[in-house]
Amino acid sequence: VRDVNLYDWLTKSNDYLLNHQEKVRKNKDNQSLKRSLKNGFYAMIPSGTFLKQGDDAMLSFSGFISIDIDHVDPIEAKSKLPLLPYIAYAGLSVSGDGVWALVRIPNVSDFKARYAALVIDVKDKIGFDLDKSCSNISRFRCYSFDPDAYFNLEAQYFTGLHFEPKVERREFARMNGSNLRLSTLIRLICETGVDITGNRNNWLKIGGALAGEFGEKGRSYF
Description:
37% helix; two-stranded antiparallel ribbon; four-stranded antiparallel beta sheet; elongated; alpha+beta
């Protein structure tokens, strides 16, 4: 285990490395053999130096995180990724049937929210789904070399954050026995957080039903 220079890692190639990469690509349909070949090869963590593999073991941050776009036309993916100003590198994965890239970010605080925003931004702007398993900062990257890789040494920071909204749970007073069915329904909605409105038409109907049953007191349930 040792530190590596990120740029050297991305540009280094020799017969031994390329031959091993070719073995992986020839056996990409044999999942167990491909996994064995990858696990027995060189790998690194592009996001920084670490005491061990673990998000809580980082010693220093490189300024980059890695993303995967799997099961796509690699040529198309490599042509579209440069449209995003925060992409610093894009190249073929070791299997050759996907693309991986480096994204420049300012820091590792709120990393999960940063990655969630990145998933949304890539999908909205160039239409690709990111592999969500890359959302750990200590993710390994198996060696792969692409002679036609894209580099942007002046990539901008991706600063987006996306926090999932918290579901508000409200407590309601118990209703009398004659409204037991409705009381049970409301209790289950509150416990599970399920949205029964579906669309604006249902939302209006539910509002009307609550108003008809409870009058002004139905406003809190609504």
